[in-house]
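Collaborator request log, item 7. Partner lab (contact: R.S.) asked for a structural prediction of HAT C-terminal dimerisation domain-containing protein to inform their binding assays.
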Amino acid sequence: MKTEPAPRRRRTPAEVKATIEDRAKAWEEDRSKYIDLNWLPATSVEVERLFTTMKCMLGYLRKRMSAETLETILFLRMNWDLVTNEITSKAVQTALEDDEEDEGEVDSYQ
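Returned to partner:
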């Protein structure tokens, strides 16, 4: 003879609101001068992805990569959905112009 599970009790919107208000009041009473870290997750998926990406990029053949280059590549990888051809072209053009200016400064010293 099987017994059916008891139906789950559904709370009314008023009960949910009262519960939230009670928790907020309790939190406010327990509040101290220190930051409450209970709301922060223990780990973050984005951070884990960043470390995995960095591990893949810094293989044994790339140990001499500068910190600036690594930071730039990681930034581009993590924000790839924001990068467009227009932005990339503009960045390349700016870098080329900066290189030309640097070469001009070196020539003037000689």
